[in-house]
Amino acid sequence: MLTSNELKDWGEDLKSILFDINITTNNLYILKHENSNSFRSQHSEVYLNLWYQQYFICIIQLAKLFSVSVQQQRNISKLCEKITIEDFDDDLNQILLLNKTKMNDVLKSKEDFILVVAEITLEMKNKSVIIEKIKYLRDKVFAHTDPNISEYDISVEDLICLKDFANKIYNDIFGKIFDEYYSFQLTHKYDFRSIIEAFMK
Question: What are the residues whose beta carbons fall under 8 Å from the beta carbon of 122, sequence distance 6 or more?
Fold first, then answer.
């Protein structure tokens, strides 16, 4: 049975992973941007080290969300499965009942939940090529040092695309059930922008 407390725990765990993903994709975008040209040329070793670290964290954290494995207990697929097949406890059903009185875009029944899950599942299939690359990089490159990754390299744009999808999943499930949406734009204050500017003074 899926309880409201269990769902809240899932939300907190996923939000912490999404926090890392949003910061690292911001940083990869900043490091790649033309405004960082001087930083890259004048501090190439620092740049390469920062790039690798951010890329590594981003891949590992995205794999936690999208890979299906025995070791990873909380990923998107397992959450969607729980929502679909398990009964809801009284507290969760009460939340849905209260949501019916709201005019906001919230989930008001298990059927609403299942529709959201179906959309997520379809979009995961559409993004399966990127997701498979993420899994490969996590399992075969970062877990076991293998220098031959060019074939499986993922662009910053693809990482940002998957990050945006993960953010949407979070808000479509947890925002719409608890009527509390999270703005991941808040992570911008933690990115490398100010550090790079300070380096270049």
Answer: none
- 160 CB-near residues (< 8 Å, 6+ apart): 25, 29
- Cβ atoms of 108 and 99 within 8 Å: the answer is yes
Render pLDDT for 103-115 as a digit per residue (tens, 0 to 9): 889 999 999 999 9
Judge whether 69 and 139 are in contact, CB under 8 Å: no
Lowest mean pLDDT among 87-96, 126-135, 139-148: 139-148
Name which residue leads in pLDDT, 194 or 66.
66
**Please, are residues 3 and 89 in contact by the beta-carbon 8 Å criterion?**
yes
Q: Tokens 């390469």 belong to which residue?
A: 48
| pLDDT value for 68 | 82
Look at residues 13, 11, 22, 14 and name the one whose alpha carbon lies nearest to residue 159. Answer: 22
- State the pLDDT at residue 147: 56
